[in-house]
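>> received
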Amino acid sequence: MKLTKAGSVLILAAIIFSGCGAQQIKIGTAKTELKTFKTSVMASFTGPGKKIKKKSLLAVKAPDMLRFEIKGFFNEPFFMLVAKGNRVQIHFVPENAYYEGEMFAKSSASPASIFLNTQNDLILKADNLKIASTFFKKSKDSDVLTGAEFTGGDYRLSFSFIEPEINNELDDSLFELPPPKKAHLISETELNRYFSKWKK
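>> returned
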């Protein structure tokens, strides 16, 4: 089934961001303030007629930087997303297609702030759709996050964190994504076509 524009944008928003048996929390209740967060991720996306599961990398650094990278079969970059505040850069590597722009409403939290304790929801600019977030940790007294879930409309993205590293030094260069050479520049309305190619 072809994804709607709202659905494709939700994938983008949610994917910037499940722990079975883990305790559900708001990250802000953790004892340690998060300044950086880096982890391997198993990301599972479900929506009408669509189910995707991919190995990924997630990194976040205060105050507003985030990187999300999906790996291919040979661990090569397949999809890259960098966010600074509410501005995002996206590279679909196999097609060498590149997008840059703002996906979230001015009233929305930034993707990075979702992981840095400050706010709980993202709001998509395209249709004012709210994406609610829930986080999981090992236990009530633990600072170790085990996963996250993002829901909006008929769409859900679940993250299982694999050996997360908290408050380690992360270089700012990790959060840079120079426009790729000879990349095909795409608009927000074209994103759906690229996301719809993804297979299980």
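>> The helical segments are 5-15, 111-115, 191-195.
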